[in-house]
Amino acid sequence: MAGAIAIKGRTLVEKIAAKASGRADARAGDLVTAEVDLCFAHDSSGPRRWAPMLAELGRGLWDPSKVVIASDHYVPAVDAESAAILSLTRRFAADHRVGHFYDMEGIGHMLLAERGLVRPGMLVAGGDSHTPMAGAFGAYAAGYGASDMAAIAATGRTWLQVPATIRIEWHGNLGHGVTAKDMMLFLCRKLGMDNAFRAVEFAGPTVEAMSMPERLVLTNMAAELGAETGVIAPDGVTFSWLRNAGAAVADKAEARAWASDPDADYEAIHRFDAGALEPMIALPHSPANSVPVGEAHGRAIDQAYIGACVGAKLEDLHMAARVLADQRIASGVRLLVAPASSRVTQAAAEDGTLATLMAAGATLMPSGCGACAGMGAGLLADGEVCISTTNRNFKGRMGHAGAEVYLGSPYSVAAAAVAGRIVDPRGYLGQRRAAA
Amino acid sequence: MTGRAFVFGDQIDTDLLAPGHLMKLDPDALASHCLEAIDPSFASSAREGDFVVAGVNFGLGSSREQAAISLKRLGIQAVIAKSFARIFWRNAINLGLPAITLAEAGEIAAGDRLSLDLAAGSMTNQTTARTFRFAPFPDHLTAMMRDGGLIAHLKRRSTDAQPETGAAA
User: Does the ipTM exceed 0.90?
Assistant: First the structure.
């Protein structure tokens, strides 16, 4: 057994890979066959694609209690085709007794976090590229396409090559009006988007001081770095969130062991100063085209979009409300707000946030992936310009290929909605909302 | 079988390969829009056996398997790139569409005639009479592609096993 000899420390993903593959040790580069703890997909990537493959294999779900399906891409149906996809998804969930089926209750990644379904040490396989978001709970959460996911749904297993880990440490305090989103847009430029077959680990005092919703932004956009997963070691913030989600961690010492050892072998360690970071804006058509907001200043916009797994949590709406309180959006600009889940909408209604946004002229949209993935409402025409809290701005993603999408934090998007053009949000942070 | 090279640049994303707003379409209809935002004639000119050649991080973005399905429907024999995004790479080989990492991909010009020997790990540019070697796929993936992709592999082996890595599970 490896425990009998002195061995070099392990990264968090190496520990999870070892547990999932039933090995004493698994190291970066090892090819292993792993057991999946949680299997997730949505209406676009899941049942509509799985059903024919499962039929071909003559198989059902390996363990319905470990399967999560969220209808979030085509919701609510806008035509007969999207209605048929949603109908098929409902039938599949019922026929296969899917353990966790969420029909138009929000974006799947948000629901995994909100419902306390992800635990430290889990191997999570998701039929969506932003599955790494769940890694904020100390899980190894990776995205897969439909054939891999159908095979996982049928067998509970997959092969993986244990990724090397890049450690990204943040030190210092984020400035006023600077957020996790700005950190990630900065990293997309700094580290590039082609870190495939690697894991990224977010650490350091800045990350330790962050709320769970802000940590979820970091691991969500690990996908934009090209990483297989993004991880954050679980701590008191994690346990507090899980307790509030009704999924309290009983053995916290065990849970805290799902962290990289101090002498773990990293592919690289990067250290950044959070205090030096400015609000960042990604120019079209890539998150890696990010610049400090001053370099995008003055760009006129047609639409401001607050939505998606990464950018429409309750805290994101609070940021927007802080800018929009007692303000009106600029004439000719439309501000669309699609909260990440129905619980987020409800909480924002209860605490007065929605009233603030509506008074400023926002349009409330259904909870779902919406315009971000180009499948829901709020798409763009040729030549239109949008600034968005979402995580990707690839050409043609949010409608016409001739549209331009800028990415920014909820502060930056709300400030642009007020000004009618991209501005430094730090000049728009008014008094904190009065508590409801 | 030789085919022509269609050459693209770096960071070709899945929204270019399979636009989100068209994802409801059936696979052939969706494939007809593949890469149209940067090359409107690609989908109509690609023929059975042709190649897509690109730079770094090919297929970044969404997990949508339709990005790889579209290329396969258009008859693309293989994608050759300097590097691949992870999910696209898995999707492609799961469909039996070889995704080949080749540092010298930039030396292939549009219209060059290429031929591929997957088992030997070599690709020949017949136009320039140059042969390039690439790292062979791991055995478990070679076996999977030989079976015609992941689902065909599982069906044929009719076991619980995913492509076995040889490691205990």
Answer: yes
Q: Clarify whether residues B42 and B93 are in a common domain.
A: yes
| CB contacts, 8 Å: B169 with chain A | 21-22, 32-35, 157
Per residue in A259-314, pLDDT tens? 999 999 999 999 999 999 999 999 999 999 999 999 999 999 999 999 999 999 99
Closest Cβ–Cβ partner in A145, A228, A375 for B65:
A145
Domains and their CATH numbers in chain A: 9-272 (3.30.499.10), 280-427 (3.30.499.10)
> Which residue from B minimizes the CA distance to A127?
B63
Chain A residues in contact with B95 by the CB 8 A cut-off are 147
**Residues B75, B151 within the same domain:** no
> What is the domain range of residue B69?
3-136
Distance from CA of A154 to the nearest CA of B (A): 8
Both B110 and B125 in one domain: the answer is yes
Number of domains in chain B: 2
Per-residue pLDDT of A193-224, as tens digits, reads 999 999 999 999 999 999 999 999 999 999 99
Query: According to the 3-state scheme, what is the secondary structure of A100-116?
Result: EEEECCECHHHHHHHCC
User: DSSP readout, B63-95?
Assistant: --THHHHHHHHTT--EEEES-B-HHHHHHHHHT
Task: Please check whether residue A380 is in contact with residue A403, taking contact to mean a CB–CB distance below 8 angstroms.
Answer: yes
